[in-house]
């Protein structure tokens, strides 16, 4: 099939999976989370706080998967996945991941930790939808808890996006920890990004805590997307699957 520049529509979901545990780590819910992610039916899934390995959990929890959590979530639905390991400790590691129904032709994890023990990353994937003339850049981030760290990390995000070919669409999603809402202007002015919920409904979607969201910490930003619209997800079962509610959107490029 020859490459084309005709419009492409696809769905994307972002969720901080809280390492497979419910709020306050009360229950291990990764199996329920997998069912919920499947039910949304998206083409790209952006994951934060996902385990690569954890030996202590594997020994203690009867149904803890024998494969990395991102592979378990991908299962037979998303045949392509990439993992960016951010934090490494005695029992294992965790980071960001992308699950994709499109081929991932390249990926690189960028360490955007600033200082101290807080480890943060930016996973950049290039996905190539079949028959498309240009790829889509999918970038999954989890930014720091300190405002000064986030501002430096946002500049690193802008630097990466500005280094990409201008005509290639960019989808940036994840947990921004931006409870003051300062990232919107930085990303708009610094890299030409717009947030899909902010553009559609005039404000970012509240996602934390999942049981009664008051803070808009999770975001989906796009560049060179001709049409984009948020998708409404039900409160249940998501309010008991993580401390963050997910976001989903239909993207047209």
UniProtKB/TrEMBL annotation:
GO MF term (any one): catalytic activity
UniProt GO cellular component terms: membrane
GO biological process: GPI anchor biosynthetic process
Positions of the Endonuclease/exonuclease/phosphatase domain: 13-244
Pfam families cross-referenced by the UniProt entry: Exo_endo_phos
The name this protein goes by in its record: Endonuclease/exonuclease/phosphatase domain-containing protein
Species for this entry: Simplicispira suum
């Amino acid at each position: 099939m020859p490459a084309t520049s005709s419009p492409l529509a696809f769905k994307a979901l972002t969720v901080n999976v809280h390492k497979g545990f419910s709020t306050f780590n009360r229950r291990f819910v990764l199996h329920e989370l997998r069912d919920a992610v499947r039910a949304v039916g998206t083409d790209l899934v952006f994951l934060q706080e996902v385990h690569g390995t954890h030996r202590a959990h594997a020994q203690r929890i009867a149904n803890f998967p024998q494969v990395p959590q991102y592979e378990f979530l991908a299962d037979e639905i998303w045949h392509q996945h990439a993992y960016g390991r951010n934090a490494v400790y005695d029992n294992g590691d965790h980071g960001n991941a992308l699950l994709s129904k499109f081929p991932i032709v390249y990926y690189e994890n960028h360490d955007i930790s600033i200082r101290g023990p807080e480890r943060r990353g930016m996973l950049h994937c290039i996905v190539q939808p079949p028959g498309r003339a240009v790829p889509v850049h999918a970038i999954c981030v989890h930014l720091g808890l300190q405002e000064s760290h986030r501002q430096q990390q946002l500049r690193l995000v802008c630097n990466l996006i500005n280094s990409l070919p201008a005509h290639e669409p960019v989808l940036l999603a994840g947990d921004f920890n931006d409870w003051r809402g300062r990232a919107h202007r930085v990303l708009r002015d610094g890299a030409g990004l717009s947030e899909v919920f902010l553009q559609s409904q005039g404000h970012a979607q509240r996602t934390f805590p999942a049981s009664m969201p008051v803070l808009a910490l999770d975001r989906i930003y796009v560049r060179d997307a001709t049409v984009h619209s948020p998708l409404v997800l039900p409160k249940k079962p998501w309010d008991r699957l993580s401390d963050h509610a997910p976001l989903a959107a239909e993207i047209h490029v």
